[in-house]
Amino acid sequence: MEFLKFFWQIGLAGKLILLGLVFMSLFSWYYIFLNIFIFKSFRDSLSFWQRRLEAFKELAPFIKEVKSGSEDGLALAFKGYLSRFAEVYNFYFKGEKGGPSLSAEAEKELKAIAYMEQERVILELGRGLGFLATTASTAPFIGLFGTVWGIMKAFHEIGLKGSASLATVAPGIAEALINTAMGLFVAIPAAIAYNYFTLKKEKLAKELELLYKRVLILSKRELSKG
Predict the structure, then answer these.
(1) Distance (Å) of CA 80 to CA 53, 110, 150
(2) Which of 34, 84, 91, 125 could form a disulfide with 113 if both were Cys (CB 3.0 to 4.6 A apart)?
(3) How many domains does the chain have?
(4) 2-9 vs 166-225: helix crossing angle, rounded to 10
């Protein structure tokens, strides 16, 4: 209630600065909670497929597992990979150009397909990271602008009333301090979240790369039968 009372007492510029910071904070927390959910879901899915792939010695059981499994992001990516694998296998080993001598070209193409599917999955991680980075870097300066504006307002009141009493300068100084605090309040969580999710995304990307290497091993075993 005190904050709302203060909000209605400050000038238009102060209101716009505070409202801008409030909206930046709301969107930041939205992206923070959204990414917590996305990263947890991806981590669970990644752990599941890591366990399953360790148990597979050939590609056929993996194909069966993917077809009967859930429709999460990784399962869909694996389906996309397996669909492309079938195209590669048919092109190199069942057509006129077929033959084991072309297995190197087939493996090279499968690596490219696996890389594309990895990138497609990783792109879905870390939504709003750009906004969090922008908020972390700009919110303190927006708060600083509000600080300068509040101090200017305090000096303006001194000039109008000809005195520097507490009653004269208090509103402007209060506005300045509130904007400073609000800028930091918005920026600090955004900076922490951005750094955390960026590092988490890099770590999960490495784990996903290792997972696809296991898939490629199974694929090469299947190609060797061709």
Answers:
(1) 17, 12, 57
(2) 84
(3) 1
(4) 110
On whether the CB atoms of residues 162 and 144 are closer than 8 A, the answer is no
Place of tokens 């497609």: 120
Task: Identify the DSSP state of 128.
Answer: T
* Rounded Cα distance, 84 and 109, in Å: 10
State which amino acid sits at residue 57.
Answer: K
Look at the block and give the residue holding tokens 């366990």: 51
| Domain extent for 89 | 2-225
Main-chain phi, psi angles of 127, to 5 degrees: -70, 140
Tokens of 139: 């919110």
Q: The dihedral of CA 52, 57, 59, 64: what is its sign?
A: negative
- pTM to 2 decimals? 0.80
Output the six-digit token pair for 164. Answer: 């520097």
Tokens of 87: 């195209």
- Per-residue pLDDT tens digits of the chain, which is 226 residues long: 555 565 556 667 778 888 899 999 999 999 999 999 999 999 998 998 888 888 888 888 888 888 886 677 788 888 888 888 888 878 777 655 555 555 778 888 888 888 888 888 888 888 999 999 999 999 999 988 887 777 776 666 666 665 555 555 556 676 777 888 889 999 999 999 999 999 999 999 999 999 988 888 888 887 776 5
- Please choose, from the candidates 44, 62, 45, 43, the residue with its C-alpha nearest in 3D space to the C-alpha of residue 53: 62
